[in-house]
Amino acid sequence: MAQRDNDKYPAETGRRRFVKGVVGAASLGAVATGTGVATTTLTSSTGEGGGITKCKVIENTDGPAPRGMPQIPISIGDDGTISGRWPEVKEVEEAGETFTVAETDIGGVTYTTEWFQYCGVQTYEGIDPEADQDNTFRSSPSTQYEWQSELSGGDPLTIDHFDDYKEWSNDIGQGGLGKPAMATWRSDGTESTIPVQVFRSQRIEEQAQNDEWLGASTDQGVIAWLNKCTHFCCVPGYKTFAGSARFGAEDEVYCQCHQSVYNPFSVIDTTFTALPRPGDTGSSGSEDGNSSGGE
């Protein structure tokens, strides 16, 4: 529907600014549609949450996904507990208004919560910069890895759980490449669970020795990423589907829904349009016009 001069949203709401931003993007020819999903390269200003965002991702190597999935920098506590690092929360002033943002510098890279603002995840409670959540990675209550059956859903993941990472195998693809886990992050007591994959690999450990970003964002070969496929927001998996071998993805992260493939051993830079959080736009859900939460 065409935008009218008299916007039905009050001027004081961020929603009005967002809608006008989408129209502006269309006028620049920046609206791309595919598989029933519309994506714009302009939304609101960064201060409101969202907008053009640079981030580090595990590379998308095949399938319809438009880009890789965002990496989550990690830390390992003195007790061995593995956690995702959360950017520093601060207030910034832009165009005479004050906004809350969360960003910090890691290894020369600006790490921000906007990395995770896509596929409806921008509406999840735990993505709010000021959400009262701990950052511990907790074992997912639903997992396809037999070794995690020894854990209860919600148990913290520790480095000891990955002691056999140099030998681990589940008979999908080549063994000994690393040991994965399905986890949740910043989701305690929330309605929307943030799915994460945690992975320990000797290859990541070696790469981190010569890569400033990986050296700062991984530890002892442990890497993590937001496990939401950038195509239609499904939850992929590293060595979780035997059928991935038919697509040459038995040693990569494979999305069984539409055969998108990601390489956990290749972390690259990408740029995409992060969607505004509900608190910034005044809406209760995604602004991308896709009811499934996809971009």
Structural commentary:
The model is unreliable at 1-47 and 280-295 (pLDDT under 50). This protein has one domain (37-281). The protein contains 4 helices and 16 strands. Strands 4-3-16-15-14 form a 5-stranded antiparallel β-sheet, with no helix packed on it. It has a 4-stranded antiparallel β-sheet with strand order 10-11-12-13. By secondary structure, the chain is mainly beta. The radius of gyration is 19 Å and the shape is globular.
Helices and strands, with pairings:
Elements: H1 14-27, E1 32-34, E2 37-39, E3 51-62, E4 69-70, E5 74-76, E6 82-84, E7 89-94, E8 97-106, E9 109-112, E10 138-139, E11 179-185, E12 194-200, H2 202-207, H3 212-217, E13 222-226, E14 237-238, E15 253-255, E16 260-274, H4 278-281
Antiparallel strand pairs: 1-2, 3-4, 3-16, 5-6, 7-8, 8-9, 10-11, 11-12, 12-13, 14-15, 15-16
